[in-house]
Amino acid sequence: MKKIILLFFLFLFVAFANAQESSKTSSNSLTLSTPAISVTIGGDFVINGTFPAYISERVDAFITRMYNQAREYALRNITDPKLLQTLNKKLEDYSLRNITLKRSDGTVLHLDLMKFRLTGNFKNDPYLKNDDVIIFAPVDMTLDFFTVSGAVNNPGKFPFVEGDKLSDALELAQGINKAYENVTQAAIYRLNYNGEKMKKIVVNLNSNFPLERGDRIVVLADENQKKAYSVLVLGEVKNPGPIPITKDNTTLREVINDAGGFTNLAWLRRAKLFRGTNLKSVLEDELGLNLEQQSKFFSDYPNPIMYDYERAKMLRMTTLTEADTGYFSIDELVRQTLNETIVNLDSALDPGAFIGNTILRDGDIIYIPQRVNSIYVYGQVQKPGNIEFVKGKDISFYIQKAGGYGELAEKGNVSIIKGGSRAWINAKVDDPISPGDYIYVPKNPNHAFDYYVGRVATYLGIIGSLATIYLLLKSL
């Protein structure tokens, strides 16, 4: 750490020297047609010293220029990411508040460049004069601070300056957020010196109440519920897309009506309602949808920490075996990622239907797939693909339509994968098949001769061990 700090000050020294030289020679420096003045920077800033300034330059422009020059020279040749991060943080460790400007005629001004940048009030950003001295006060944001939250435009943590009042805090927070109504009070939470007791002080916003270090200000207002509540309707409706809803008061029927109703191709028995999920990749990849415009409904990736936490809660008191736990983890990931509910929307638009009265929540997704009238046959068949569904036909019919079994097909282990639930069923000739189902024919592995030799050797080894144990027990 000491080495990093020494390097930091070395870079600042180089920056200081180069900044002075650059101010004389660079294209940004003063020319003969622009009269120059000298300004000194002191206190807790990234560089200290006396530098030339433009006669028409204000304090903020001068400070910004000197900071950028010092930063450029200090970081120019640094390639170590950790050192770069450390120096960047150190360079930004200064306060724009409580700046003292001393003039040669004895005038002393107290400036607040943070207020200037937020409000544009030039009272805090005067023009420079020759021999001005700008002094930055030290600040410790772990102690010299106050916070503002609640019904303001710019909540945050701000440096505290002696004499700050509630009006200063509201100014730095850029005033009251107009989205809130009837905002008249603020609560100030104030700890005592040893931090063991806290006092809550409720004051009117126009009271100009004096602040202390460490005050936490909450501008009080009832939560504004006028938010962009909406659900996303995808698939076979006439007007798919986001549908505005009310908070916990809009029904599924109302949303379907607002989406223009179902198309003639809607498969209502396979419709799905997704809630509170991470579906962007699932819907894009598996359903071939482009949801870039609907990014508000999705996070980029599942939260691995929350997934592990939820899985740990589920497994904490389980009696599953080690092998079963692995399968359960797969099912748990599917549950957390999708959180889907298969809903039959056949009667969703009927006024008295229960499913139509389902209350939707902000961010819900309704997907109505297109009706499928085929069976997909794949695996060890000659021509895998979609086969038109024929009511009453069994698996042998569809396998024959797919060109029949392949040479390595394991005919006794064919599976039907149900299209809705993706459940696997060991197929029998008389098992019912529905549109959208899958028929999978697995491969009977064709092992080399060495594989069978190894298996036989293993079995012979087991038999030999059992024989040895038997003879030992017999002798005893």
Question: Short description, anyone?
Answer:
With 476 residues, the chain is of the alpha+beta class. It has four domains: 2-136; 145-219, Outer membrane lipoprotein wza domain like (Outer membrane lipoprotein wza fold like, Roll), CATH 3.10.560; 230-359, no CATH class; 374-441, Roll (Outer membrane lipoprotein wza fold like), CATH 3.10.560.10.
Model description:
The chain is of the alpha+beta class and 476 residues long. The protein folds into four domains: 2-136; 145-219, Outer membrane lipoprotein wza fold like (Roll); 230-359, no CATH class; 374-441, Roll (Outer membrane lipoprotein wza fold like). It is built from eleven helices and 20 strands. A five-stranded mixed sheet has the order 2-1-5-3-4. It has a five-stranded mixed sheet with strand order 7-6-10-8-9, with helices on one face. A five-stranded mixed sheet has the order 12-11-15-13-14, with helices on one face. Helix 1 (2-25) packs across helix 2 (59-75). The radius of gyration is 37 Å and the shape is elongated. The model is unreliable at 1-10, 19-33 and 292-303 (pLDDT under 50).
